Amino acid sequence: MIKLIDKWFNNAVYLTVKIDNTEELKIFEKVLNIRNQKGDVLEVIWGNPYFTILEKINLLCKWLTVHSIIYYVHHTNIVSDQIFDNNCKQLVNMIENNPEIFKESHYHYYMHDFDGSTGFDLPNRLNLHHAKIMGDIADNLIRRHLK
Question: How far apart are CA 114 and CA 92, in angstroms?
Answer without folding.
Answer: 7
